[in-house]
Amino acid sequence: MKHIIGHKNPDTDTICSALVYQDFLTQKGISAKAFALGPLNKETKFVFEKFGVPEPEQITELPKGTEIILLDHNEEGQSIDNIKDLDIVEIIDHHKVKIETDKPISIYIEPLGSSCSIIAKKYLGLGDLSDVKLSKINASLLIAGIISDTLFFRSPTTTQTDKDLVEKLNEIAEIEDLEKFSLEMFNAKSDLGDMPIEEIIKLDYKIFEFAGNKYGIGVMETTNKDYGLNRKDEITEKLKEIKTKDGLKAVFFSIVDILNEASYTLTSGNEEAELFTKIFGAVEKEGSLFVDKLVSTKKQIVPRFQENLMQN
Ligand SMILES: [Mn+2]
Description:
six-stranded mixed sheet, 312 residues, Diaminopimelate Epimerase, Chain A, domain 1, globular, inorganic pyrophosphatase (n-terminal core), alpha/beta, binds manganese (II) ion, 11 strands, five-stranded parallel sheet
């Protein structure tokens, strides 16, 4: 059996794309099962409850030699702990590529707004000739993944294809008011209650390597930025702690105001604050580094870090 796994600190796109791809492969007669590398975030939980879908099983390791399909990621540091012991047989993703394999495998990477868009194309692209049917629930899950990753088309990662796919998918899903559904999703994601600070930072958090150094980059996409800004001192302390504990060069945490399309970034120290300000032209606002229109880790934050840090 092929184990389909999304990235650590799972988001709606990684979970929904993995789960629906399980259905696709199963209909193709290929034995496959989707797993989550950790608990689902509140937005994903909202989506699963709304459509009555059971949550995928959570795992942290798999037996040596297990066949795995990586969904919505391709970097080892973002994947299952014992990835080195496992057999990667396929990758489906929409992030930058950084992987080495020891044999030829099937890799499908397309710069669309979400991995759910890629999975949707697999169903819809096959047309009437296909024996693969997209159910109402799975169409709904794919829409949720696309809305989540593209911030309902606000993110610069959004493509016309993503928009066209949502329209086509909704002919099957029949979600009455997509705008309203997206707001419900974002509000669910923003409702963090008294979640411990480290969990908030790690909700959407990835390690990247630039010029031989490791950087932690966390994002909190929210409709309630004040929730994060009110806890900025605690967050900053924790970023410093994570930096030391995990041997990182720097840690950045951006509070992304989804509806106003801007971000407020906190950092693990002065040097990294200066670096961030220099790279992104940030201005001081509410005790954070404010950048208008900076909302995407994948298309804006990571590429600009890479560009700047590789030169030195
Ligand atoms: Mn994604």
